Amino acid sequence: MSEKVPVQVSVWSQQRAKSGERLTFRTQVAGTLYEKGEAIYVAYREGEDSGLGQTLTTLRIEGRHVTLIRQGETVMKQSLVKGEEQVGTYKTPHGTFDLVTRTSQLIVNINAKGGRLEALYNLRLAGDKSRMELKIDVKPL
């Protein structure tokens, strides 16, 4: 495992529900970037305004496969692979739900020095469908 590098993580996401309603979320937090084996990891705690409490979010980037893992009040594991449907899980105090993503666009330009990730995907959670757009910038502090 490489040395953990302190980074600034900027996250922008927009969720478009079937009804046409858009929810936009922005946050900027401190995190760490490190390599382990063939994968690059970006780990950060969600801000208080995320609605996720003190959730630890980890991005695992390995080639064209990105896994988003959240651990805290809710536990989530979501995979993004361009052109593929991936099934993950979303565990809450109210139960566990399947989380299905179909990624149409995935641009990963993150290395050991930082970079950017962009994704466009359809999300199905407990029967609700939405379109997600995600942009994450990682810069050394």
From TrEMBL:
<dbReference type="Pfam" id="PF09148">
    <property type="entry name" value="DUF1934"/>
</dbReference>
<dbReference type="InterPro" id="IPR012674">
    <property type="entry name" value="Calycin"/>
</dbReference>
<dbReference type="InterPro" id="IPR015231">
    <property type="entry name" value="DUF1934"/>
</dbReference>
<protein>
    <submittedName>
        <fullName>Uncharacterized beta-barrel protein YwiB (DUF1934 family)</fullName>
    </submittedName>
</protein>
